[in-house]
Write a sequence for this structure.
């Protein structure tokens, strides 16, 4: 089967890119080194916002805001097409001290996508005593369900997915990619898109130029209550608690520069659990349901690289989203598709090309 596009990487970036291309009538094949959707896209918490948006550059908040704007219609379309509910929910996020209140208030006042209220944390069944910020428009999604729905939709649109297929070489002639050498043989197409997350630089090899994408491990804990123990997402510093509709509670996360090591550690488990208990005493004595780790595709300042390779005319990249790959997914796919087709962009995308030279 010939393909118009070969996509290297079957996470949220790869599947959302494949979906958009298929809906334009392209023939698409996705190559995944492991199993589709089982890396960072699956491992994250699914908060559809930067944790404290006022701490990030505009290049990040612009892309996350666009992604959040597109998300409700996107998941509704997926639910209708597949019957699978990704459980998109506008649950709001409570930001507990310490934080720079003046900076946060000024930033939110100038960004309509992030309205903010000042509240008392004690009103939310938490031990925190200080004032808190409440961001009512912050939404969440259940990553594994979103990925299952995306995969099903991609396949129903005619997309081909090949798992256990690692790319070992990108063969180039005359400034164009000719073939991919993989553990499942050679593949060729008209156009190629790398969406390999933390492995993108390794996949590109000598064609990575000065791209700076590397793995940063994040560990998460999962608990189960009879009823949701919180009404909203809760954030304090880099610790977050995410309540699901069915009573599951996610606690995360670490930021560990340990290469491609995906092992969990007792130290991280104990630290996350103890910090979470200080905020939510009902966690004391609870059984830990699951503990896992994922490797985020870290990039400088959390700014991903999206677009055409500077020297290879039929090679594209959609990677380096760091902590916000799920949030940015629909917007990143939109930008990449517009780049490929020459359509008008929703905003200036120049910053998302700069990663090739960092």
């Amino acid at each position: 089967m010939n393909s118009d596009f070969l996509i290297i990487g079957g996470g949220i970036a790869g599947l959302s890119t494949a979906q958009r291309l298929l809906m334009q009538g392209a023939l698409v094949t996705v190559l995944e080194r492991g199993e589709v959707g089982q890396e960072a896209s699956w491992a994250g918490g699914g908060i559809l916002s930067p944790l404290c948006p006022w701490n990030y550059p505009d290049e990040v908040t612009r892309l996350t805001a666009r992604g959040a704007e597109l998300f409700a219609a996107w998941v509704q379309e997926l639910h209708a097409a597949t019957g699978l509910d990704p459980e998109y929910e506008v649950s709001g996020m409570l930001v507990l001290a310490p934080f720079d209140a003046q900076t946060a208030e000024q930033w939110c006042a100038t960004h309509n996508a992030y309205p903010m209220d000042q509240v008392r944390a004690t009103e939310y069944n938490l031990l925190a005593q200080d004032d808190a910020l409440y961001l009512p428009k912050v939404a969440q999604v259940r990553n594994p369900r979103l990925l299952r729905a995306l995969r099903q939709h991609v396949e129903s649109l005619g997309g081909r997915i090949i798992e256990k297929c690692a790319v070992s070489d990108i063969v180039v002639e005359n400034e164009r990619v000719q073939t991919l050498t993989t553990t499942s043989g050679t593949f060729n197409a008209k156009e190629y898109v790398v969406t390999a997350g933390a492995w993108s630089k390794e996949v590109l090899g000598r064609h990575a130029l000065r791209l700076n994408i590397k793995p940063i491990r994040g560990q998460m804990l999962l608990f189960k209550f009879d009823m949701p123990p919180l009404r909203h997402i809760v954030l304090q510093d880099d610790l977050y608690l995410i309540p699901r509709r069915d009573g599951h509670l996610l606690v995360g996360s670490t930021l560990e520069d340990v290469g491609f090591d995906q092992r969990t550690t007792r130290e991280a488990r104990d630290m996350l659990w103890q910090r979470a208990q200080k905020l939510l005493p009902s966690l004391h004595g609870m059984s830990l349901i699951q503990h896992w780790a994922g490797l985020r595709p870290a990039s400088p300042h959390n700014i991903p690289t999206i677009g055409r390779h500077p020297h290879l005319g039929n090679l594209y990249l959609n990677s380096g989203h760091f902590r916000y790959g799920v949030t940015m997914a629909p917007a990143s796919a939109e930008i990449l598709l517009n780049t490929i087709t020459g359509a008008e962009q929703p905003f200036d995308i120049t910053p998302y090309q700069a990663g090739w030279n960092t």
